Amino acid sequence: MAKLFSSKEAKKLVERHQKLLDRLEAGGRITENYVKVIQDATNRLVADETLRVLKTVPIEEINRDKRGIKTKPLRDCGYETVADIAASSVYEIALVRGISEDTAYTIHRIVRDIVSSAQKTIKIRLNLDKKTPESTRIVIAVVQYDRSVLIEKACRSLITANDGMISDAIDNLDCAANGLKWLLSFGAGKQRAIEAYEQLKVLLEGEYGQNVQRALTEVEELENVSDIQAWEEFERYPVRFFNILESVVPGLLGNDDSVYGLPENLVREIQDECFFPEGLLCELRRYQEWGVKYILHQGRALLGDEMGLGKTVQAIATMVSLKNTNATHFVVVCPASVITNWCREIGQKSKLRVTKVHGARREAALVSWVKLGGVAVTTYETTAYFVLGNDFKFSLMVVDEAHYIKNAKAQRSINVRKLCEHTERLLFMTGTALENNVDEMVSLIQILRPDIFLSIRGISFMAAAQQFREQIAPVYYRRKREDVLTELPELVESREWCMLLKEEEEIYKRTLLSKNYQAIRQVSWNAGNLRYSSKARRMLELVAEAKAENRKVIVFSYFLNTIRGVCEILGNQCMNPINGSLSPQRRQEIIDEFNMAPAGTVLAAQIQSGGTGLNIQSASMVIICEPQLKPSIENQAISRAYRMGQTRNVLVYRLLCDNTVDEKVTEILDQKQKIFDAFADKSVAAQESIEVDDKTFGDIIKAEIERINAEEQVG
Questions:
Q1: pTM here?
Q2: Residue range 219-264, pLDDT digits in tens
Q3: Using alpha carbons only, what angle is made at residue 471 by residues 437 and 298, rounded to the nearest 5 degrees?
Q4: I need a labelling partner for 264 at 20 to 30 A (CA). Which of 132, 320, 388, 609 fits?
Q5: Spatial separation of the C-alpha atoms in residues 605 and 129, rounded to whole Å
Q6: Taking the chain, what is the end-to-end CA distance rounded to the nearest angstrom?
Q7: What angle do CA 657, 659, 665 make, to 5 degrees?
């Protein structure tokens, strides 16, 4: 039987396949290489930072425990800091006149202990505004690792799918690669060899060969990740970066202890709790996933994490996990000021169905939720209209800002308790430090866990004591920012969607018809009485939370009328405002007064004047009253607080109203930003180009008028 290829060609084909398999095998183990790269990069940074610290420690520190070590001879020989000693060998230390060999060994051991202690204090800080060669190496290594995980998976998949077939074909082709073997082979063997040759050739020329080449090219490109690419990815996916670092180098960020004071037996049980994130559209930090497991395991819990740690996303992740175990119905009870925000967060961060049970159509919405399932988002007041059958049960009820029901005799508390009878699991959430108000904590624990309430009723006065904390650990879980986000400071941005009240809707419609651009932009703030403004209400809630968290607040608005309104509703809590008419000197005087003011103080400023040229690091919460037509103005304003010298997370809240020009402006700017991120040169000048111009805003107004007219005709 004649073959249409030579032995040399057969041998070459086998060698090509074998070489590709070997490279795929290496690609299937590539992640472990980049684990080491990350570890090496972080070790170098820790070593550099440790050296920097040791250079500040005087040589006399080695004699702190009065060991009788003479440090003067060391100083006389040029040893001034512990870093100098750490860089020397025992032999070099022993050469110092007056230092014996035994003493040299003692000094070396003491310094080694000091170095070890210093290393434990070093925590990684990745800062876009403070890029160093060391931190850049880490960022590049994390990108390489992250990409390598997918590449490794692809390589292994190619091997698994084709290895057996290729191995058999190579074995069958063996006789054709050797002239003598071919002559001695029988017809069947020769036929198998010919078929194997064609099979191996088709594989290389077909989809398999293309996929292999793609995977191997990606392996090679891993070494070409630039510092610009790496930092851009860090900016887009910081959560992923920190999760990888926590996983690869436990303890590097200083938050390896995810239990945060829980009893050991409870920790072991929570560690074994299963979390099913399929359908969750965002990535959780390690501490957030632990919080979800705590909630799932305990069933009835009070989550008291500080502001900015993501209580909402933990609640959403809990619902997602329960849905993946066949749960169908969930309820979220929240203040009216954040109901829209809850609906948006659930829609953006999960695949859960969301139903807003509120307003004129609440009964129909409730019926729809009962029938179709998903998450019913409602307000404290609307719980009075929840009429459910005695046998109807839902899987989880989330009560946001749970301190709202601290008064058991209040009607909303009664309504919420009644609704609790229908739920299997119950999650209360509050960012208020309940340790400072034990009575509120105890009243909430009474609803959640009557058994624990009975055990702490007589010792609540010992709230600060370990015994009390251990007693409430199964029901109350609170993390502080410094416990879990040690890479601080961090910028935490949030869109706070408010729902127009009836009076505001009428004002909004009239303002639209006036076609007064400036007035239209002041959505909600142009309500006759700001106490009936949805944005003003939300601002007051945020300011109250800031005060509880020992924060100061900056409130920015483009409009002087809004700034006056903010000052009026806040009263003495608000400083003299900053506007364009003030001299630079007077502006600085106000800033100095603000820096000296107590927590909870608010500084209101026109964003055009207060947003540039001032350093206001004493504030760690920024509230922006309306979307700016040029986002660069917002960014400049935020940078007044979020800059070098800031020691706390900066929380940024953008107040927006649903179904208004706020929503349209935000959507257009988001689209422009996506295009910018994909194609534009990320310079300051380029960023300035993103805006909503007068024509576009005019189109928005026209579309809004048409929408409202259409709705009124239908109504």
A1: 0.68
A2: 999 999 999 999 888 877 888 888 898 889 887 776 555 566 788 8
A3: 100
A4: 320
A5: 25
A6: 85
A7: 75
